[in-house]
């Protein structure tokens, strides 16, 4: 099956969701308060060694240009694109560890042979969305810890409705506040080679009832 055919099939799989865009957004759980909808950036931090090594092997894809931060306008079309790309790679790439795949503890790469771990899913989704015309400064590789305390990577998409997470562990696209992950760091919106630490989701401030 060709890559394009896979995308067409994935689009058909998620087509029912595009008929209920409002329900999709409700499922994603984007907070109404924009101060909660966007992950708080704290300070610059070290780039993951996996990213540094990836950039040494794919130098042309890791430019150091400074860009103006932007976001994806969340519409029926952009939601469909995000859902289609997420579904395609989640279904077509077989999960394997780097040790099983490459014989090393850590290697970030594209899953060109149909196998990969979490970072590889993220890189593939990011590249496809860039190829589709979405701005790379809104498609941010993000490192988290899951509920077992283990490292994991997801793609965070900054939108005008808040930050969304594309994850190889689930088909649903969720607000960053709904994943249950502890957020460690992500690419900066101004440069993909600058990384920033992130704060935790905060609960809405309670107000006294009258």
Judged by helices, strands and strand pairing, the structural class is alpha+beta
Give a count of the beta strands, DSSP E runs of length 2 or more: 9
Regions with little confidence, pLDDT below 50 for 5+ residues: 204-210
Widest sheet: strand ordering: 1-9-8-4-5-6-7
In DSSP terms, counting alpha (H) and pi (I) runs of 4 or more, how many helices? 7
Approximately what portion of the residues adopt beta-strand conformation? Answer: 15-25%
Oligomeric category: single chain
Overall geometry comes to globular
> What is the distance, rounded to the nearest whole angstrom, between the alpha carbons of the first and last residues?
61 Å
Radius of gyration: 17 Å
Largest sheet: 7 strands, antiparallel
Mean pLDDT: 89
* SSE topology string: HHHEHHEHEHEEEEEE
- Helix proportion range: 25-40%
């Amino acid at each position: 099956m060709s890559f394009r055919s896979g995308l067409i099939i994935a689009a058909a799989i998620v087509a029912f969701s595009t008929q209920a865009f409002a329900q999709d957004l409700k499922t994603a759980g984007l907070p109404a308060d924009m101060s909660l909808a966007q992950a708080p950036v704290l300070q610059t931090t070290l780039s993951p060694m996996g990213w540094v090594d990836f950039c040494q092997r794919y130098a042309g894809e890791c430019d150091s240009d400074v860009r103006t931060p932007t976001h994806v306008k969340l519409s029926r079309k952009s939601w469909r694109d995000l859902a289609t790309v997420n579904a395609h790679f989640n279904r077509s790439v077989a999960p394997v560890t780097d040790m099983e795949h490459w014989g090393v503890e850590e290697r970030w790469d594209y899953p060109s042979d149909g196998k990969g771990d979490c970072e590889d899913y993220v890189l593939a989704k990011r590249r496809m969305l860039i190829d589709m015309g979405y701005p790379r400064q809104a498609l941010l590789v993000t490192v988290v810890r899951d509920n077992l305390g283990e490292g994991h990577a997801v793609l965070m998409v900054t939108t005008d409705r808040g930050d969304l997470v594309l994850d190889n562990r689930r088909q649903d696209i969720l607000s960053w506040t709904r994943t249950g992950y502890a957020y460690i760091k992500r690419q900066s919106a101004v440069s993909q080679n600058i990384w920033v630490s992130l704060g935790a989701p905060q609960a809405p401030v309670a107000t006294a009832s009258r």
